Amino acid sequence: MSDLHTAWARLFARSLAHSGVGHAVISPGSRSTPLALALARVLAVTVLHDERAAAFFALGQGRASGRPSVVLATSGTAPGHWLPAAMEAREAGIPLLLLSADRPWEVQDAQASQTTDQTRLFGSNARAFFDLGVPDPHPAALAAVPRIAAQAVLATRYPLAGAVHVNARFRKPLEPQPSGGDEPWRPRYDAIAKAGAPRLIPPRPAPAPEAVALLVETVRAAPRGVVVAGPLPAPDAPALRKAVARFVKASGYVLLAEATSQLRFGLETRMVGAFDALLRAPELRAALHPDLAIEIGAPAVSGQWLAWISGVDAPARIVLPGERPADPVGGARAMLLGPIAALLEAAAAELEAPPPASRYAETWRTAEAAAWTARQRAAAGRATGALHEHEVAPILCAALPAGGVLMVGNSNPVRDLDHDVPPGPTPLAVLHQRGAAGIDGLIAGAAGARTVLEGPLTVLLGDVAALHDAGGLAAAAAVKGPLAIVVIHNDGGRIFERLPLGRDPALAEDCETLFVAGHGRAFDGLAATFGLGYARVDTPDALGGALNEALAADRPMLIEARVAAGGSAARAALLAAMAKAGAAALDAPR
User: Where is the signal peptide, in residue numbers (predicted)?
Assistant: First the structure.
């Protein structure tokens, strides 16, 4: 009897490992039996029933490591649950390999059970699609298996990183079959397996000389300048920090760094963290208007920055987005594609000696210092003993060790991190889902990231995001070691209170009912279901204590941080105080 199914699957699995895949996330199913058995013999495996959570788990591994993980599911609707993760992978540029088992061609469009069209299931959300076909003993078919594996892995990273879909068809029997090892195809198979997958090496990216020349020429003509750093990948942090520090020093520019840029924590340079607050004051916009803004990474999260560059007084801009275009508001003078760190390093090397001390840079730093001092005083004045929303991120960052890893959710948490935690010398890696900027899959993604990191990880998200990813708690349960899941519980989608909709008294009732949509749920039961540690806290001291416990625990812990009502109003007051103080500081004699 032939055992071609098993041999075929093992050849593909070994080729994935040979090409750089380190982890597999498997959702149990029948049609995927040969591949599940094969992957488990060559890769570290995590088993998760929920395919959606499984894909986000693998995405988190890729986000933290820069290497693709493979996700496996059976045929039918199961792979369809991968779509949200595939969308995020495409928009964030995270490598991810999706491997679906399928029925053979002869039962397609014949009402066969658990059979649907899985061809190019993810459309443009997948960077590439490969059909592995039905196991075939022909020598050419056998030889194609390791090549397709190598090509699929390469396609997760080159030319643009994202999700890649491989569809693999199998006929029954699906289980290993007794075999004497004397099938006619065995000698050729053994030779192919021994040779391994081909090495596919992409070209090394390098900045275009004309891009470097344009950047240098423009900077020299624009002495009042800023570098605006939006979301950037955590694995690129060391090179980015070195290059940005060198460029800021050589150009005399000021760095406006968001928390997700990997530059805000652990980099000592001319840096401003309060720019979203400062730009709320029209007089500060006038005083701080740069000759040139250089945007690096994904578009900034700051609403004030985006509003400024969309308006009639928008500063001139050059965008360094990395490998993919990024200028959603339009109007940039140039977009310089390619490796950001290498481009800035090359430009810094060509810029002459550091320019003389600039009053412009001093102006930014004066406003920055005044803004953070004002925030501290205003926050202290609001202290009541209860836990307030604006206190969570500072307490959390203070609890993290140097070099710690924080994953931050979208909606309010990513903005609160920028508004509440100033730049500092302690290095911190910040993982984020700013690709498609959705709120789902965050817990599963954090759990996946934790499995490829050596130290503890803390994830900060809102209660609505946590409910969206309740299935992700099963993924968290698969983690060994400390994983702190901090849920800011303000009972609903409070970001809507900060939008124009939420500020309109005539729509107050609609906002609360249709958008904030308070749910009244607690998380203790969910934590117990999945065997996680749990703490409910409602004071700053209790949150600090729970964080210390979670970061030293031997299993993940969910911290439900119940915050006082009125967080949106408090946020508006704090930002107004920061803007007012920044403006006053520029008016004061210096």
Answer: none
